[in-house]
Structures are given as C-alpha cells and as structure tokens.
Amino acid sequence: MTDYPEKISDDKQLEELLSKPTAETIEMFKRLDGDIIFLGIAGKIGPSLANMAKRACDEAGVKKRIIGVSRFRSPEEKKHIEEMGIETLQGDLLDRNFLESLPRVKNVFFLAGMKFGSEDNLSLTWAMNSYLPALIGEHFKESRIVAYSTGCVYPLVSVESGGSKETDMPVPVGEYAQSCLGRERMFEYGSKKNNTPVALIRLNYAVEPRYGVLVDIATKVKNNEPVDLAMGYFNVIWQGDANDVVLRSLDHTKSPARVINLSGQEILSVQNVVQDFGILFGVKPKMVGEEANTALLSNSNQAYELFGKPQLPIDKLIKWVAYWLEEDRKTLGKPTHFEVRDGKY
Taxonomically, which superkingdom (predicted)? Predict the structure, then answer.
C-alpha cells in the first residue's frame, strides 16, 4: 500500500501524487512500442495523465515522443504542459486540415469531449462527442486507441444491483449521454472496419481536491448550503488511480473495441458523505429531499481483475478534500452535476 500524506499542502504536491506511476505502469512502458499522443490534453485529467506517462518513461529508461494536442485556452496552460517535457501541438481537432497534420503515432489517448454546457450547444456536443471520434478512428486506424467515455451511458439502477456492468445494455438519458454513446459507437465502427485495437473507458467519477463529486458536496457543506439527497448514491475513484488504469489500458485494447468500467469499489451514500464533511468542518450540514431508490452506479470488477483494486482509500480522499477546502485553496470551479437525474447537464 502506498504511503500517502495526511493532507496535500499545495498544487505541486498534488500534481506529484496525481502523476506518480506505479511499478506496473513503469514495467508496461519498458516494453511498449511506439510514441504517444494525448488528444485534448488541456482538460481536467490530461495534464496529470500525460505527466504520469512521461514519468513512467523516464523511470523505465525509455525515450518516447510524447505529444499533447489542444486548442489551449491560454499561453500558461500550454507552457505548463511543455514544462513537463511534453511536446505540444495547438489547434482545433474539428479542423480537418489540422487533424490530418497530426503524426500517426502508435499509441493514442482520446480525452476530447463536451459536457459542461452541453444543453446550450447541442450541435457542438454531438460534433465533439460523436463526429470527431469517427474522424479520429480513421486518422489513427493503425494505432492503439484508449478513449474516455462515461458511465452516463448507463441507466439509473438500484443500489442493490451493485452498479451497471459492461455487459449491460446502455440506455443513455438526455442528449449528452446519447452523444457519448455515439462516441463509443464511432470508435467501435472504426475498430471493426480497420481492425484497430480500442479500449473505451466508462469513467465515473474521477476525484481530486480541486474537482469532483466530493468537492461539490464538501463546498456546499462548508458554505452552509443545503445538499440535495435525490441522487443519493455514487461511485468515485482517486484520479491518480484512474490515471494508472487508463495508461495500462493500452495493454488491453482489442478489436472489436473493449469496454472497461472505471470507478471506486464502494457505493457511497451522499447522506453519509455529507455527515463526514460536517464533522471535518465542524458544522451541522443541511440536507434536503429524499434519496431515490436508483442512482448512476458502475460495477468495475472487470477493471479490478485486470489492474488490481484502487489504492487510495475513500476516507483518505474525503479528508484530503476537506483539508484543501478548509485552507481555501484553488478549485477548478467546474461542478460535476452528478445530482442530475434527467440527463440535462
């Protein structure tokens, strides 16, 4: 078991923890052939994921070209990626000329997508989440592709079910979730047509002290705002553990595409987590509404069989989030909308 600190003191320590490769990841990079490209690197997950790959290569003693592609919202964002030792290419992936200029490297991670505000621009949501994957699948047909998807393609299920499995039929609610299933179908189509090895990662939810379901709940408790209990249960996984699994998924790409659920072992109760944060903040939390008998839950047993169970305990993660917010450190300001039950994000 990794020796984790009691609290995370600053962004530097957080990035160190998020991007620390496991021995298994380092071993994989020792034998991995080809260079690596991260498409949509500048989001919430991309920087630490790519940094973990770079650190794993360094510790494995191998040299690879590692490329990060994004529109980059600011020069600082681009500089931050480059300071990790990652080459950057700036452009819009929906621009066919730019896309076709990208080097056809062997290992591709697809992180681009649209979620926040998706209801306000549905045509762009479908373009990013369904049309673009078809283009990517064709351009990188000779590569291995690991693509992020979401557990939102599943229906709400009972807590007693233990969560949706990869063999369950997707029933996406709302256009965001439908477009995400479209993403999967386009990668599946390319995988079958071109015999491209693909892994589709149905993630929900990755968490760290600046972002995620735990931050959403903790912020409301700290600010003495009521927490709605309607979506009464959820899964989360430490983003460092998720990064490890995503990188190692290169070893498990297949044609036809393979689906991998990725989340934490425990089904967490919103009410219990609210009470935990109340104790940590020394306040009496406010809760409204009643727990529904269904929630968006994933069963990730297949991932545990392939990669082992997540290393970071949930109680440690809850304490990290509380310490971070108690010290008024920076968050990303992007709510997950995990409580949404009608698919309108």
Answer: Bacteria
Structure-token match 């990730």, residue found: 300
The H or E element spanning position 75 is: helix 75-82
Tokens of 330: 């920076």
Q: What confidence tens digit (pLDDT) does each residue in 276-315 have? A: 999 999 999 999 999 999 999 999 999 999 999 999 999 9
Tokens of 151: 């557990």
Distance of CA 233 to the CA centre of its chain: 19
Domain ranges of the chain: 11-326
The strand ranges marked E within the chain are: 36-39, 66-70, 87-90, 107-110, 144-150, 157-158, 198-203, 206-207, 227-228, 233-234, 237-238, 258-262, 268-269, 287-288, 294-295
Token digits of residue 257: 């595409």
Q: What count of Cα atoms within 13 Å lies in the side-chain half-sphere of residue 260? A: 28
d(C-alpha 144, C-alpha 213), whole Å: 31
Q: Are 99 and 93 in contact (CB under 8 A)?
A: yes
Q: What is the C-alpha separation between 38 and 227, in angstroms, rounded?
A: 36
